[in-house]
Amino acid sequence: MSLLFDEYGLPFIVVRDQEQKQRLKGVDAVKSHILAARNVANILKSSLGPKGLDKIMVNSDGEVTVTNDGATILKMMDVRHQVAKLLVELSQSQDDEVGDGTTSVVVLAGALLEQAEALLDKGIHPVRIADGFSMAAEICCRHLETISDEVEVSSERKTALVEVAMTALGSKIVSRCHRQIATIAVDAVLAGIKMADLERKDVDFELIKVEGKVGGKMEETTLVKGVVVDKGFSHPQMSKELKNAKIAILTCPFEPPKPKTKNTLSIKSVEDYEKLHNYERKTFEDMIGHVKKSGANIVCCQWGFDDEANHMLLQSSLHAIRWVGGSEMELVAIASGGRIVPRFEELTREKLGSAGIIREIQFGTTKDSMIFIESCANSRAVTIFVRGGNKMIVEEGKRSIHDALCVTRNLVKDNRIVYGGGSAEISCAIKINAEADKIATLEQYAIRVFGDALESVPIALSENSGFPAITTLANVKTLQISTNNPHLGIDCLKRGTYDMKEQRVIETLIGKQQQIMLATQVVKMILKIDDVIANEI
Amino acid sequence: MMQPQILLLKEGTDTSQGKPQLISNINACQSVVDAVRTTLGPRGMDKLIVDKKGKSTISNDGATIMKLLDIVHPAAKSLVDIAKSQDAEVGDGTTSVVLLAGEFLKQIKPYVEEGVHPRIIIKAVRRSLQLCLDKINELAIKINKANATEFHSLLQKCAATAMSSKLIHQQRDFFSKMVVDAVLHLDELLPLNMIGIKKVQGGALEDSVLVAGVAFKKTFSYAGFEMQPKVYNNCKIALLNIELELKAERDNAEIRVDNVKEYQKIVDAEWNILYQKLQKIHESGANVVLSKLPIGDVATQYFADRDMFCAGRVPEEDLKRTLKACGGAVMTTVHDLNDSVLGKCEYFEERQIGGERFNFFKGCPNAKTCTMILRGGAEQFLEETERSLHDAIMIVRRTIKNDAVVAGGGAIEMELSRMLRDYSRTIAGKEQLLIGAIAKALEIIPRQLCDNAGFDATNILNKLRQKHAQNHCWYGVDVNKEDISDNMEACVWEPAIVKVNALTAATEATCLILSVDETIKNQKSGDAPPAMGRGMGRPM
């Protein structure tokens, strides 16, 4: 920050460490923000749509991530600029709320700012531009409602759900087998809400676990109606398959209990020592006795147990899994309908969970093995098991499935859809241009450019697909106006029709509305800043 | 002969005095005022401030900006203080108060330079303040509390005016209703901490909801939590301040055991202590257990086993608000747990909001509390929304307590300015000029409103002066039409107390700065200046 001087030539030190602070004021500040935001948007532009490309990111530890997901790209980019950070948060909150459309929301925000810059040059007050944008966003959301279709959602009729999930997966690396993965995602969500939650329309993602394992093909990705635990049986001699399992779910270790209070046990003689030894042995026997008595044939333990206990378990032909994580314990309990038992004394027949089959599966030539707990009493807890050629693909697969899960959930919540491929944006742009002429005040200009900004999504789509962007857009737009059909969009996959309804490229209405609202909010916020006081970092 | 040097102050101490010091102080204040000037009014802009840790704040709130600027200039600091005091006292008008103080000083500066004694100036400033306060009291319109709907809509108008300069001004109708509903939920004393504000990223602003009751984020949970039921009708709530975990009863205790039998007994004893506690809670008939302290995995599973819901590590204020809403008492022991100390509510559920899960308590019998759940894009956006709502809540509270309103948009300032100018012409002496200067200074509010909106300030101000001279006392700036309008009719209302407080605080600050003629600034310990001049044994 430059120093100020008074009439007598004395410098003011008004603010602490004044010289070290940067300050940017007025239109310069707004313009520099716009530039920063546009840069971020440009990075993401090329990963939009089914023909969009992926980014590779290497973090400071040398770990490589390949992704197409806007939110992930931005998060990994580790942006420093404050305004660019806002865009990162924008895509993050789209991710939290909707899960899909994280790229488009940033592209839209970038386009809005680009248009705003032109208006600023014309001398329109930034706040009025911001006002105009939010008016336009409102028009947009209302218009989207009128062009939306309702689809029927139930566990029997899941075509629409699968199609939405497929659209969300269209741009991802998994698109090779996207119908399969979309079906998996939809089944997973439907399994989660089968119970009383259907009227509450509340889907708890904690019950859907996504596990990955490197190796195999992407096509081998499966939905396990149960739980997958990334562990093996505790003893190599235990048989690898167990039918009609009765599971004892324990959170106490297989060892003599210790008091939490600090304690010392003083042993004075050999007899005492013998006693202690016998005591320990007896506790093991008691524990196994409790388990046996309850009728369980497999023990799922949160903690470990030593080799002696392990051996005794094997001898009494009990299966055991040790070191199972807390959240997995919970899932096992939910899936099998058992109760988590904190003490051996409380173990009873009623508290056991049951599963049709428990298998230990080994993969390829590696020694890793996993335990599948399937055909459970209660199938609310499900696991999606992702396979893929390498770690990056598995990770990207997991992220893509997350997106698919989110859109499916959204459609369960609100069964209205709009058509993708940029058709909704084009239709909104036409509507907005018509509305803009009806507004008397200065905001008219801002509303009109909002329409232009919306077109950036179809433009990016057709650019990424290798079409002449403007020509294609113009064609679609004229067709939309002449046939009055809001379902026409960019034919990225060259299926020979512009009609997205025929192509079944569908997106959720909530997702689209959220995109527009969130992008507008952030753009408004950026436009309103006219002064930046920053410490040099 | 050389005079011996008298060292009165420590070396390096900065002293400056007299008129130049006074002028310098005034100038320093000006530079601070310039920093917040552009945030005033519906067309005001926001500031982005990045602190040393790289955390950025975007705000339009005068007090917040002043606080974050980290001002060290001693005179300019007094402006920060008045902004803070305005924030604490009324919550809104923090920018105006700084602007007014700065403008008073600016208009008075020529007189200081000409050599008018500061005491005379102070007297004149105080005199004009008194006149202004009398005028506000005379003009302010009392509102009728008897008619509930009318009162409600009036409060909404005040809240809407407070929000009109903020980021959320497009949604101000939505939020002003929400704010007024929230404040009216409270009891007589209108305690601010009984309105909980929770922020969840994502979603549109309009997705924000007001919950008549309590809502808070799901706390950290142990295995077994997902097996607990998530919905209850007519549930009973136990509010506890007990750690329900298997742990050492005394931290510094040590047990010495010398035979194995005793060992098992001790283990059992520890378990029994916990199990007795849990059993007592279960027997009391509570469905939902909330505790300020952690609820461990054993307890979580115990409750899950008995179809009860529990949440540990509930933040204290949330627990307090639950107490207010649902009744009952926060217990520190389980022994007296009975029906009378349990809270009650009609409906409890855990629900997903954005990326978070929230616990809701609805239909509480004595709901003297409420929770706002705000939704919005970015974190900074939500923070600014919270600050804006805080301002609006304060305004509504103030208006309920102090039921007089005046018109905003510069109307009341123009009227005060006219009154002071008329008065100054009736008196003789130096005060005439000084009061005239104050009258001119008051015009800064409408002037800045125009400047920020990009209007021709001189033109608008002349129109306003003419209207006020014809006794149309509520005319102010109309930002939407680039003209003037009767702001009483246009529903741009502010509580009179905001203006009273702003004028008083600005005057106090002005007087304080004017009465200072010397600054003695002790050098910061640690960084001594390099020894100057005195080298090689020679005197300076």
TrEMBL record, chain A:
InterPro entries, from UniProt?
Answer: Chap_CCT_epsi, Chaperone_TCP-1, Chaperonin_TCP-1_CS, Cpn60/GroEL/TCP-1, GroEL-like_apical_dom_sf, GROEL-like_equatorial_sf, TCP-1-like_intermed_sf, TCP-1_chaperonin
Q: Which keywords has UniProt assigned to this entry?
A: ATP-binding, Chaperone, Cytoplasm, Nucleotide-binding
Q: Can you cite an annotated GO cellular component?
A: chaperonin-containing T-complex
Q: Which Gene3D superfamilies match?
A: GroEL (3.50.7.10), GroEL-like equatorial domain (1.10.560.10), TCP-1-like chaperonin intermediate domain (3.30.260.10)
The family note in this entry says: Belongs to the TCP-1 chaperonin family.
Q: Assign the protein's first listed, main location to one coarse class.
A: cytoplasm
Residues spanning the signal sequence: none
Intracellular or extracellular location(s): Cytoplasm
Question: This chain belongs to which protein, by name?
Answer: T-complex protein 1 subunit epsilon
| GO molecular function terms noted in the UniProt entry | ATP binding; ATP hydrolysis activity; ATP-dependent protein folding chaperone; unfolded protein binding
Automatic annotation (TrEMBL), chain B:
Chaperone listed as a keyword: yes
Q: Which GO terms describe its cellular component?
A: chaperonin-containing T-complex
Q: Its principal location? A: cytoplasm
The residue ranges crossing the membrane are none
Taxonomic superkingdom: Eukaryota
Give any Pfam family that matches.
Cpn60_TCP1
Where it sits in the cell: the answer is: Cytoplasm
Give GO terms: molecular function aspect only: ATP binding; ATP hydrolysis activity; ATP-dependent protein folding chaperone; unfolded protein binding
Name the InterPro entries for this protein: Chap_CCT_eta, Chaperone_TCP-1, Chaperonin_TCP-1_CS, Cpn60/GroEL/TCP-1, GroEL-like_apical_dom_sf, GROEL-like_equatorial_sf, TCP-1-like_intermed_sf, TCP-1_chaperonin
List UniProt keywords, sorted A-Z: ATP-binding, Chaperone, Cytoplasm, Hydrolase, Nucleotide-binding
The record's catalysed reaction(s) read: ATP + H2O = ADP + phosphate + H(+)
Q: What does this protein do?
A: Molecular chaperone; assists the folding of proteins upon ATP hydrolysis. Known to play a role, in vitro, in the folding of actin and tubulin.
The annotated subunit structure for this chain is: Heterooligomeric complex that forms two stacked rings.
Q: Which family does it belong to?
A: Belongs to the TCP-1 chaperonin family.
- Listed name of the protein: T-complex protein 1 subunit eta
Q: Which organism is it from?
A: Zophobas morio
